Amino acid sequence: MEEKRKLIRRQADRELLKRANDLQTLMERRGESPDAPKSESAGHARRLVIRHNCKVAIAVKVGVSSGYADTWDVASVRVKGRILDLSAGGASLFTEQRFETGQELELMIRLRDGEDIHATGAVRWVKMVPQKGGYASGVEFSQMPDKDRKLVARFLAELEKSAGL
Length: 165
Prior knowledge:
Elements: H1 2-29, H2 40-47, E1 55-64, E2 73-79, E3 81-86, E4 90-95, E5 104-110, E6 116-129, E7 134-143, H3 146-162
Antiparallel strand pairs: 1-2, 1-5, 3-4, 4-7, 5-6, 6-7
């Protein structure tokens, strides 16, 4: 089953890469410079080319109190989810739990080569996905160690070269 999904994703990646190349060729024919600022739709089409095969562990910070005390502690609660999209500045997540805009999350992203990325991020948008029974959320990274930023950049550059295959 997993192999079939990978095969379907690879085919979809090839088709999207071809569409992105066709769009670039069309822009060149129209005389638009590749260095000129691209329209939002062209950037969006390019962004859809790569699929990311990595896992995520999501921790949500919540305040807890025991009994009738006025003292609150902060604890991390783990939430199941997966990465939909990854960039150097953030990630799109799919979870069954709905997050609130502005909520802070701690993420541990395992890249497909087995390396772990640790980041803290804020939820910037949330969208319900009723056909999948969950929510898509956009998270902007606010804190990430420099070594992890370099790992993400290297991972994304590798995907760019291989079209995610």
